[in-house]
Design brief:
With 155 residues, the chain is an alpha+beta fold. The protein is 25% helix and 28% strand. The longest helix has 20 residues.
Length: 155
């Protein structure tokens, strides 16, 4: 499941903040744009906000207007059953979690079409999977976190 944040903006600082709900909202000059926002939704929103600006100062009014337009955009995509997904680059040593169990796999090597992975807790559980199927059955761990906690396991 994709992590959600509260998207906030501070006009004085001209800065966005993806809050993980640890701060009190609407304080210290910050105002909420979206209560629940994924990384991908933020990237789409930020691209929309910056589409016609020539280094102008962002205002609360403008940002909230853009938020309404982006919400309509997402609703239209949903109505037409269109999805936008972030392209994930696959590289060796990345950790991918199975969508069906609590098993983590480390990417060992790749070819043009095939990814070879190994369970980080059971080196005998290795898989070869197509690049297309990888995103269908596995989730890339945040920031490619190494679930071996720094231990260098050799496979």
């Amino acid at each position: 499941m994709e992590k959600k944040y509260r998207l906030e903006f501070n006009e004085a600082q001209q800065s966005f903040h993806l809050d993980n709900y640890t701060h009190t909202e609407e304080t210290n000059g910050w105002f909420t744009i979206f209560e629940y926002c994924t990384d991908l939704e933020f990237k789409v929103y930020e691209s929309f906000v910056n589409r016609k600006l020539e280094k102008k100062k962002l205002t609360k009014e403008y940002l909230l207007e853009c938020a309404g337009e982006v919400k309509r955009f997402w609703n239209n995509l949903e109505e037409y059953k269109v999805e936008i997904n972030e392209k994930k680059e696959i590289s060796c040593t990345q950790i991918w979690k199975s969508k069906y169990s609590d098993i983590y796999y480390k990417v060992l090597q790749m070819s043009e079409d095939i990814v070879e992975m190994c369970d980080i807790d059971n080196i005998w559980d290795c898989k070869e999977i197509s690049r297309e199927e990888l995103n269908e059955h596995f989730t890339l761990e945040d920031k490619f976190k190494d679930k071996t906690n720094g231990r260098n396991k050799s496979y």
